[in-house]
Every structure is written in C-alpha cells, then in structure tokens.
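Priority: low. Protein: DUF2132 domain-containing protein. Input follows.
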Amino acid sequence: MNEEQPKNPLHGITLKAVVEDLVERYGWANLSERIPIRCFELDPSIQSSLKFLRKTPWARKKVERLYVASLRKRQRTARRAALAAEARQAGAAEGQPPTPTEGLE
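Result:
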C-alpha cells in the first residue's frame, strides 16, 4: 500500500493539512462562500470541520478539489514569476533596458 503516486497531488497530505491550508489562504468566511457547508459557516473550527469531512464523502471531495485547484494556481503563479525574473535577468545580461509592461494593449 506504500506505492508512489506521482500524479496524485493529495498523496501524503493529511485532511488536517488541507483544511488548515485552505483556512489560512481563504479564511472561514470566504471558504464558506466557496463551499457552502455548515461546518464552515456556523462556529467553524478545524476539529469540527475534520469530524464532518471524514464522515461526509461529498463534502470532503469538494474541499479536496478546491485545495488541488489552489495548488495549481499557486504553481502557475510561481512559474510565471520565475519566467518573468529569468527574462529580466536575460535582458539585463545583454545590456538591454527592461521593457515596460504597463499600458501595453
């Protein structure tokens, strides 16, 4: 059962870590707007959310989907920032002034 799962972004990540990351990223209010379930709306806590999500597969699936989407968005943003920094460094190394990015249409 201890097989590698390189294509599974949730492999090795606990439900507690998923919920904590989402709460840190979105906050309880925004999280309850994105996933309208009571454990996020009424007196929310990590413990009560974990208890509910472990017993309710459809809700857990929604939370996991939001987490995976947020991971992908984070990776995309990091990749774009790295490419932009690399382009700036390449331009500076060639002695070219940085190109303006504002006002381009």
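The helical segments are 15-34, 38-41, 46-55, 57-93. The mean pLDDT is 86.
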